[in-house]
Write a structure and sequence with these properties.
Elements: H1 2-16, H2 20-73, E1 94-96, E2 100-104, E3 110-116, E4 121-127, E5 133-138, E6 144-154, E7 165-174, E8 181-189
Antiparallel strand pairs: 1-2, 2-3, 3-4, 4-5, 6-7, 7-8
Length: about 200
Amino acid sequence: MAKDRHYNKMAKNKKNGFTLTEMLVGMAVFSLILVAVSGIFVSAIRVQKRTLDTEEISRETSYLLEYISRALRMAKKDDVGEIHCLGGKAKTNYEITSTGIKFRNYKDQCQEFYLDATTHQLMEKISSSEGELISTSTLTSPNLRVNYFNIEIFGANQGDGQQPRVTITMEMTKRNVSQPRVKVQTTISQRQLDWSF
């Protein structure tokens, strides 16, 4: 009888505990769940960072295009060829340079947008009509890189029968990050009508 009680007590204790195999299986399942949840968490952080990077590039690209578009839209024709920035060519609206575009702005100053090849940033230079430098400024933030900046001009000369238009194509990325990239293209028409046609 005492032997049976001792045996029943041991059997009861075995039912309340776990075997080594059960413990190992439980730890393995817990580890798998922990690894899966950690992977999802790390993936979510990467997606969020990429989204924030894309948003920052898009916001800055939108600002740049609006700023450049407004200036190009307000450009004035060099009716007599007196403005230094257009190379003395009379009746010209814009002049393409090796890295950007020059034009006569609404204040009769020479304004230029160009890509700095060493810093990969978009720059703006403003000079007087005589060619004296007034200001040079960087338009892009230091943590962004302009990979590509191209300008095409249509109808820039008086008498060609076209309203002056400028097409800007640009690609931007974050520095030291290969992705994401934002590519944009827009066409701007000069506000003042070209009366010769």
